[in-house]
Each structure stands twice: as C-alpha cells, then as structure tokens.
Amino acid sequence: MGGEEEMKNNEKGQIVIMVGAFMFILLALFALAADVGIVYLWEKRLQRSTDAATLAGGQDYQQEYSIDLKPQAEAQEHARAIAIQYMGLNWGSTDNVTVSFLDELNDKVPGTDGIAETVQVDATDTVPLMFAKLLGIHREQIAASAAARINIRGGSSCGPPESSRPHPW
C-alpha cells in the first residue's frame, strides 16, 4: 500500500501545471483575437476615409474642370488638396496618401484624349498592436485604395448635350 500513496503524492502538482498551461494558451488566443480585431477595425476606418477622400476629390475635380472651366492641372491640384483634407477629416492619416488622376475611361487606346476621368486615392497606415508585442510584433502596416470615375464632358456642364435634351413642346 505504501507504493500507491507515494504515487498519489508524486501526482499532486500535475493538475496545477496543466491548468496553468491551458490558461496561458487561452490568454494567448484572446490576445491574438484582440489584435486581429484592432487591425480589422483600422482597415475599415482607413477604407472609409479613402472612400470619402476619393468622392470629395472627384466631385471637386468635376466641379473645377467641367463646370468652372479651370485648366486641368489647376483643377487636379485643387481636387488633390480637397481629397487629402477629407482624408484627415474622416479619421485618416494624411501622411501616406497618394491622389492620382488616370486617363483611361473613354479612350479606345488608354491615354489618348488627355483628359483624366478617374480619381484614385491610395493610403497606408500603421496599426499599433497591443498583445503581439509579446511576440516581437509591434505594429502592422495596412493599405486601402479607392477610385471614382468622373463624367467629364470636354469643359461643358455635366448634363446631356443640347441635341439630346427633349424639347419642351
């Protein structure tokens, strides 16, 4: 009988070690879930900011170029400033933002008419992580992109051409 008692005494601390190991694994999984959630939220925030900046820049570009008849370079520069401003207003970082104007929409050969019909905003940001620091990962780089096509009608208003409008009678 002495052998059984010795065996029981040797096994007393095993459950504590197992519970401790499982608690550590569970805590690590919760930490991973929290960091993944933070990255996901920051990505969505950056995408919303990029979308808002693209729409604001595109609307401003259309207004400046098509309706106010400003030169294309001047209209693009003003639209670029508006897009970056809206990026900042919508909780986005304005440090790593690129606003570009593309000429490809109605061209049979891209770039042949010289009129930029697409505004594209690309942005990157860095997400500080909370728990992944324990694994040596301090931050995660994220990126978002959005593009808007603009109805440019060679300097005229954005409505249909005069010949296609119905007559009032």
What does this structure look like?
Residues 154-169 have low confidence and may be disordered. The protein contains 3 helices and 3 strands. It has 169 residues and is α+β, with helices and mostly antiparallel strands. It has helices at 2-10, 14-67, 72-89; strands spanning 97-102, 118-128, 139-149. Helix 2 runs antiparallel to helix 3. The protein has a 3-stranded antiparallel sheet with strand order 1-2-3.
Features:
three-stranded antiparallel beta sheet; alpha+beta; 169 residues
What percent of residues adopt helix (DSSP H or I)? Answer: 40-55%
Largest sheet composition: 3 strands, antiparallel
Q: What is the C-alpha radius of gyration, as a whole number of Å? A: 29 Å
What average pLDDT do the residues reach? 82
Number of strands: 3
- Reading the helices and strands in chain order gives HHHEEE
Shape: rod-shaped
Structural class: alpha+beta
In what order do the strands lie side by side in the largest sheet?
A: 1-2-3
Number of helices: 3
Identify low-pLDDT runs: 154-169
Distance N terminus to C terminus? 113 Å
Note the beta-strand portion. Answer: 15-25%
